[in-house]
Amino acid sequence: MATVTAKVLCRQKVETGEGDARQALVSFEADYQDGRNKEWSIYTPHLALSMTLKGAAADLFEPHQAYTLTFEPSTD
Q: Helices H, strands E: what count in the chain?
């Protein structure tokens, strides 16, 4: 099976709590600027992803920043 790579933009980051209880809900959408995602978007024209992160993991993502998301077949 092929690997699919998608360019995504962090659209929103909502943080709650403090210290060890700090969490962030991070939402992403496909980035279509400059023809990005052109190959797969012909067949799947929408992508949305959200995840909740705790503690320092919440610092890894920032709104309006672009990221590369890679889907690979699992071997297990």
A: 1, 4
**Residue 75 tokens, joined:** 């071997």
Q: Which amino acid would we find at residue 14?
A: V
Strands 4-16 and 66-71, bridge-based pairing: antiparallel
d(CA 65, CA 72): 23
Please check the confidence at residue 14 and state whether its pLDDT lies above 80.
yes
- Asked whether 1 and 73 are in contact (CB, 8 A), the reply is yes
What are the tokens at 59? 């610092």
pTM of the model: 0.80
Euclidean distance between CA atoms 63 and 65, whole angstroms = 5
- pLDDT digits over 35-71, tens only? 777 777 777 678 889 999 998 898 999 999 999 999 8
